[in-house]
């Protein structure tokens, strides 16, 4: 991969965030380049989800630099961020329970996109997504509320992909689903990566992260403690023991 | 009553149901998406009537009169819908993040403004609309004459229901609306601009209300009182049907309209030497239905349990104990109140106003007790005020009790009422609880209104004065002492273990339950306490005026209390006191300043809501947080360096 010319897809620096009066994130800095799958790792409560939400603009109070494809998004509303091509998949899935699978996908639909260089972005149709998630294809008319946790997890990812995002923020895809689904998730992410998708995922499951990602950031108490390639992290027992509890 | 008469009544019910449905459907839709309880929805209905009247006068004549008439009705609906869009964009959009009840307060202010606007444009007289061309007469049905226009209405309800169903399930916009009903924040994160979705839904809801009003015009005159009666009916229907459920709204409208029609049809019935007047029951029957439905199916007929609201206001900050300065402020205020009668020469009116304000303070402090720390929002607190007032009046007049004894007994009577109603109410929460309190207060009102022999019916009761030894300014001082003591006692409750339990139950019912607090019981007790002190306010009121009328139990009285609590700021303990004082003085001075006092008053409320979303007592908090903001960032920085 060339390490020049193109600016990072997502560039975060000095990101601070608060829940009410509680200061959660301290000067978080990270980068995602086109085509990369990055894992944001750390224990429960380390600030992984908060980082993703803060990037998305879903927190009442945050400050810092957030640039997406060269544009400053730190003061934008979540819907504006989403429309610029930054997709967000929440950890608690947040499926619309009254809507069918097809209707859930419809809520995420956005325009077709092109990269600034003119090449088409990864654009999705419901049929293409049903191919990626065959389970969903078999239950198009089912209501979101009547699906299992794993099926909902797939639906929430598919729904975000309907927005044809340049970059997906994927919050804890392996949490709270059956092992067989975790395996499917990993395959799905690898298949997206093979098609050129860029993903920033938060993850506690080290093996899952190791399987899918190129680089990793490790968070502890709202601060980035480590940043490097996934391979280096796998060999670094200290970091793993101290911050990941592996 | 024979079978045909009954059938005709049932048809009437169907026609009535359509009108009710149109208003309720809009209200339900708006609530579902934006979580705003639109108090002004009845006003949009009323405006629909007036606008339709003006348009029909212009378009409904001449050779094109059929098209002109129906065109005018639709145009009126569009005009009202457009007005709704404006309201959403200019007002509501600014306060979506404010606490739920603030939005209620803002829409209530709109009620006042619209009512005076209608008074200014169309005048105080009721306006009779033209009959629909070609449908002015009657058709023969079951051997009786039946108004043919009603047949149109019967069809309109289900037709609109069908159209809404198509809109919500077959269009992309409808899918977005249904998604927003569940999780607007998520929808935003998917790239949907909620602002325009909300505007669209609000406009559609208002248009439906306007259409309902316009369609009603050939049956009854446009009048200024139609806003509040309509909103009352619409609330009941939405709650009975299930908030956010459109088919539920139709079902509930049908149920209520039919039961009312049957009651009218039955009239007065002799049952084994007992006379039952069913037609009198119509005043209260919808509230009886609502009470039964809420107890049996707390989420309404076709509703479902509310999804946990992700936009719920942040957990309330802990109450602060008063500082030294606080005690000084209280002492100064008390001394100032005590000095009021001394101004007798220069300001003879001051003590009278002061007396009213004191009563209002007690009423509002008791309401705040259950709303703020208790987290139970009441739309019917006037019930206990009324029970206290009428209780005292009846005990003195009919039972011949001496005044001091009646003063002690009447609040307990109100407490008994609160005990009964509260038992049902604490089983619910949120808007449903509020609606049930409203239902109970309407039931009390209609009993008082109709029980001529004991309560004097609509005339009320007169000649209820305090004893000799309390004449002159002495009664004022007694009031001051009672109100100050009551406020102190209620405050004391909140800093006792009971108060902690109450606040724990409000902030996290599950966790409170898990640590052994019987949340329902604590809330029930708080409900009763609020009822007793609300009753005490009513008791003091009746002896200060010497008379009482059913108005003291009206919805308007409950709403006044609500406005005062919200004005003062719901989570500040001094809030209700400040709110009641400001409201009392404002209302009094504004009322004397202009004929259009409602509009002015509504305008003031709107200004306050927009400028101080934390309430008046929150102003100081707001200023303090501006002051602390830079310091907080500094603390964070320091903390960072330490780690």
Layout: helices, strands, pairs:
The complex is a heterodimer of chains A (246) and B (643).
Chain A: E1 10-19, E2 22-32, E3 37-41, H1 48-56, E4 61-68, E5 71-72, H2 78-83, E6 86-89, H3 101-108, H4 126-132, H5 134-137, H6 149-161, E7 167-171, H7 179-194, E8 198-203, H8 206-212, E9 215-220, E10 223-229, H9 230-235, H10 237-244
Parallel strand pairs in A: 3-8, 3-9, 6-7, 7-8
Antiparallel strand pairs in A: 1-2, 1-4, 4-5, 9-10
Chain B: H1 3-34, H2 41-59, H3 65-90, H4 100-122, E1 138-141, E2 144-147, H5 148-170, H6 172-182, H7 184-189, H8 194-216, H9 226-241, H10 246-266, E3 268-271, E4 274-277, H11 278-296, H12 324-339, H13 350-371, H14 382-397, H15 403-425, H16 430-450, H17 452-455, E5 461-462, H18 474-494, H19 497-507, H20 509-514, H21 519-545, E6 547-548, H22 555-568, H23 575-593, H24 597-611, H25 618-642
Antiparallel strand pairs in B: 1-2, 3-4, 5-6
> What is the makeup of the main sheet of chain A?
6 strands, mixed
Q: Largest beta sheet of chain B, briefly?
A: 2 strands, antiparallel
Terminal Cα span of chain B: 85 Å
Uncertain segments of chain B are 308-314, 630-643
The overall strand count of chain B is 6
Description:
The complex is a heterodimer of chains A (246) and B (643). In chain A, strands 6-7-8-3-9-10 form a six-stranded mixed beta sheet, sandwiched between helices. Chain A has one domain (10-244): P-loop containing nucleotide triphosphate hydrolases (Rossmann fold). Chain A has helices at 48-56, 78-83, 101-108, 126-132, 134-137, 149-161, 179-194, 206-212, 230-235, 237-244; strands spanning 10-19, 22-32, 37-41, 61-68, 71-72, 86-89, 167-171, 198-203, 215-220, 223-229. The longest helix of chain A has 16 residues, at 179-194. Chain A is α/β, with parallel strands linked by helices. Chain B has 643 residues and is mainly α. In chain B, 71% of the residues lie in helices and 3% in strands. Chain B has helices at 3-34, 41-59, 65-90, 100-122, 148-170, 172-182, 184-189, 194-216, 226-241, 246-266, 278-296, 324-339, 350-371, 382-397, 403-425, 430-450, 452-455, 474-494, 497-507, 509-514, 519-545, 555-568, 575-593, 597-611, 618-642; strands at 138-141, 144-147, 268-271, 274-277, 461-462, 547-548. In chain B, strands 1-2 form a two-stranded antiparallel ribbon. In chain B, 50% of the residues are buried. The model of chain B is unreliable at 308-314 and 630-643 (pLDDT under 50).
